[in-house]
Every structure is written in C-alpha cells, then in structure tokens.
Amino acid sequence: MNIEDLSKTQLLLLTILVNFVTAIATAVMTVSLLDEAPPTVMQTVNRIVERTVETAAQTPLPAIPGIQAPAKETIIIRDEDLLSAAIRADAGRRVLIHKGATTTPVIAYGTYLPDKRAVVTATATGLPKEATIEFADGTAVEASVSRPGASLTIYGFADAAKLPAATTPDLIASASLNQGQTLVALSREGAAVSGIISLVGADGIRANVTGVPAGAAAVNISGDIIGIATAVAGVFAPADRILTLLSEAP
To answer: Is 86 part of a structural domain of the chain?
Structure first.
C-alpha cells in the first residue's frame, strides 16, 4: 500500500506508533549507557536529579475564555546554586579563636551556632578557658569554655555580649546520613572543598576531603552541619556530639 493512499486517521495512528517505538528505543539505549557509565558520572547524574526541586506556586494568571489556567509553575533549583548557598552559610559561621587580642596568632578554628549563642571547636591541648572569638565579619567578642568534651569543646558568651547575625543551621544526626551524600567544608585558606561521605562509624564521619582545619564545620548541600573536623584528616565528629554537649549542665 502506498503511504499516499492512507487516510488522515491512518496517518495519525502511524505517527503515534513510530513515536512510541522511537521513545522505547531511546529509553532502552539510555538505560544501557547509564549501566556502563563510570561511578563518577552516575554520581553526578544522581546529584542533579536529587537536587531538582519542583514547588507549586499559586500564581494568578489572566483568565482566558475556554482555557483553564495552570494551577502551578515549576521552579528548578540547580545543584550548583545550592552548593554556593551552603558554602556562603558555612563561611559566615566560621570563626577564629585567639588566646588574646585578634592581633595574637590564631590558635584554633571554630563554628558559630547563632541560635545557641555558642561556638564549637575540636578539643585540643592548649585551648584556653578564656578566648577571643573573631567572627567572619571581623567582630571580636570575649568567650569562655562552657562545656568541655572529649572530642568537642563549646565556648559561651556573656548574656550582654552583642553577637553578629548568621544563618542558623540544623544539626544533622549521624543516623540520617548515608554513604555517598555530598559534604562541603572550608580549608584553612577559606577555599571550598567538597566530597562524599565514605563511612559513618563509631569513630566519626569519614569523607574524601583534605585541608579542613580542626574545628571547622562540614555541611550538607543545604548548609546544615553534619560534623566538626577533628585533628585526623578526613574525619569529622558527628553533630550528635554537639547536641549531647549542649544538653549537659554547664
């Protein structure tokens, strides 16, 4: 039969059939290629899909006779935008700890918890009971150890102390973490480093990142705190320990 002899209905059905077969063939080929892709490629694809957020926005549109206005619009948030926001939030909470005035050498790095009016750092020999905390905006405030711990130490401030504003993070329990999740931190020089959680164990959270000073925070892609860097490279004390210290009597 010549295609020119087909009716409009037959042509439409033929077009639908061709499109259907083509879609199935494309899907099979895509799945086959992804199965053969290296783990790093799959990780990137999964992160992009994971971070594509669809939200419903009730946007009033002009009424058009005979046409129903859509109830929502789709907003795409890119993975790189989330990462940038997480890095900015982490940088805004990172502090320097001095034994005296800010002109004295930095003896430790710490992480500011604005809602707790506290700074957490890694426990180390030589940490002073009284210290000067230098915030990201250059503000310097006197602080004292309020809750010492085996792996983490928390500094507190006087009730009258005026502290700078910063993004308040959630403290993510280690039980909700999984291998392969993205982790972001700042190096000693302030450079952003990212990697994945390789292990969540009794000794802490392990990740394939280097150059993060003890006391600095590791955050997830939402900017919430996963853990605090220890003196062992790539090992972070879980945020659970912060919650435990904060719950203890000073």
So the answer is: no
Q: Which burial class, exposed, middle or buried, applies to 140 when counting CB atoms under 10 A from its CB (0-12, 13-18, 19+)?
A: middle
In terms of domains, do 101 and 151 share one? yes
Provide the β-strand partners of residue 156.
Answer: 118, 144
pLDDT at 36: 60
How many domains are contained in the chain?
Answer: 2
Question: pLDDT tens, 10-22?
Answer: 767 778 887 877 8
Provide the CATH number for the domain around residue 105: 2.40.10.10
Q: Are residues 179 and 151 in the same domain?
A: no
Full residue range of the structural domain in which residue 97 is found: 91-156
pLDDT per position as a tens digit, 187-232? 999 999 999 999 999 889 999 999 999 999 999 999 999 999 999 9
Distance CA 201, CA 64 (A): 59
Please name which of 133, 132, 127 lies closest in space to residue 113, comparing C-alpha atoms.
133
Mean residue pLDDT across the chain = 83
3-state SS of 140-166?
A: EEEEEEEEECCCEEEEECCCCCCCCCC
The answer to whether residue 32 sits within a structural domain is: no
* 10 domain residue, yes or no: no
211, 193 Cβ separation under 8 angstroms: yes
What is the C-alpha separation between 234 and 203, in angstroms, rounded?
Answer: 12
Ramachandran sector of residue 85 (left: φ over 0; alpha: ψ -120 to 50; beta: rest) = alpha
**Inter-residue contact 182 to 152 (CB < 8 Å):** no
Work out the angle at residue 215's Cα, subtended by the Cα atoms of residues 212 and 219, and round it to the nearest 5 degrees. Answer: 65
